[in-house]
Amino acid sequence: MISPSVHEELKAAVGPGWYKYDNETLVSYSYDATPLYQAMPDGVVFPASTAEVSAVMKICAANRIPVIGRGAGSNLCAGTVPMQGGLVIVMTRMNKLIEIDQNNLTATFQTGLNTKKFHLAVEETGLFYPPDPSSMIICTMGGNIALGAGGLRGLKYGTTKDYVIGLEAVLANGEILRTGGKLVKDVAGYDLTRLLVGSGGTLAILTEATVKLVPRPNFRRSMIAIFSDLQSAARTVSQIVASRITPCTLEFMDKATIRVVEDFSKIGLPVDAEAILAIEQDGDEAMVERDLLKIADICKQQGAIQVKVAATPEEGAKVMEARRTALAALSRLRPTTILEDATVPRSRLADMVLEIQRIASKHNVQICTFGHAGDGNLHPTAMTDARDEEELHRVELAFEEIFEAAIGMGGTITGEHGVGMVKAPFLEWKVGASGVDIMKRLKAAFDPDNILNPGKLFAETRKRIVYKNEADDAAPHEPHSETKQAVDPIHNEHNGQMNHREG
Known about the structure:
Number of helices: 16
Distance between the termini: 31 Å
Radius of gyration: 23 Å
Mean pLDDT: 89
Structural class: alpha+beta
C-alpha cells in the first residue's frame, strides 16, 4: 500500500494531474494484453521526463514500493501486470522523436514513442528501421526494447536487439545510467546496452534510446505459395534458407488460420489449402525479381500446388497485412485467445509443426499455427474460454509440452514475446539452474531491494520435467508441475474476453 504522505510526494514529483490512484485508473492498469492475468496497482504515474522518472524512483526506493514500467501494454507475457501491487509508471507521455541523424544513420527518441509513428518518420527521410512487430500500430519503442520484440522482417534484418546502440535508463535507486551511443564500435567494459534490451523492466526503467538505421530498400515484391500438406510447406522454408536466399519476410499459416484470416480480410486466400507461405523480398529490383524466380522454383520442387506473385505493390501489401491480422481474426472464434511463441532451428520447422498438431490432438484443444517461419519462430495459438477451467487446464498442459518439444529440438520457450510472468516457470528448462542463478545475481546488483517489476522472469515456484527413470508412471519427456504457478491468474468474465495482441 502507498501511504497518504507518499501519494503527496508522487503528486509533487510529476504534478497533481499526472499521478492517479482512483479506482477507475487502477483497474485500467491492472492488466495488459495477456489473458488470465490481472492485479491491482496502488498508483499510476505518467512522467514527462527522465528527471521525473528519477524523482519517482527515489521515492519508491525509499519506501520499498514495487515499480512496473509500462508502454502501451500490448505485450503477451504479462510483463506489465502489477502482480505485487505498487506503482505503474506509464511512459506514453515521453513520446518525443528527439533526432534522426542522417550523417550517422541513427535515431534517438523517448521510449514512449509509438512504433508505427517512428517507422513513418524514419522512412520519410529515406532511411529504414526494420524491426516490425505485428502490434506496431499500438506498441511503443520502449516496450519493443524492454522485451526484445521481433516481427515479420526478422529473417533478413534481425530483431530489436540488433539495432539498439545506446540507452538512457533510471536505476532502482533513481540514478540515471547512460550506455552506448552513436558508435559503430564500442567495447568499453560490459555491454550494458545489450543487457538492458530484453530485460523486461526488471533492471531499470528505459527513458531514451538510440538505434541504428539502414537505407530504405528501393523495391519490394511479394508472393504466396500454396501447399496441400504442412510438411511440404515446412520443408520449403528450410530449402529456401539453404539455397542462400534470404527473403525479407517468410511467413507461415496453417489451414485453420488461412480460413479465419480470409473470412476476416477477404483478399482471396485459398481456404482449401493446408498451408501457405507468404514471402516478400526487398532491395534492388533486379535482385528481387531474380530471388523470387528462384524461390518460386524451390516452392514448386517441394510440392507447392500454386505460386502467386503479387501483380502490384498494393496487392503484395494486402497479403502481408492479412498475415498481420491473423491474431485479430483468430480471436473472433472463442472468448479467450492464447498466443504463444516457440522457436526452433529452421531445419526443424516441419518437425515442430507436426509436434504442435500431435500435442493439440492429444489434449483435445484447438490450436492454430502461424508465424515467422523463416526464422523458426512459430505462434501456436489456442482458442479457448477462460471460464472453462477444465479446458483451460488442458490448454496449459499442451503449451507445456510444446515448450518442452521446442527445447528438445534445440529451440527456446520464447523468440520475441519475452519471459515476463507467463514463461517464468519454464525459464530454467531453457537456461539451466546455473543460468537462472547468474541472472538472479545480475538482478540483485541492479535492484537489491527487488522493487523493479517483481515476480517477473523468475518463477517463485518451479516446473520441472519428470523423466521415466524418475517416476515410473510418468510418460517420457512429459512435463509435470511441482506446484501450480506462483500467482493463480484471476479468472473473471471481463478478463476471459481479453485476447492477446502479437508483440
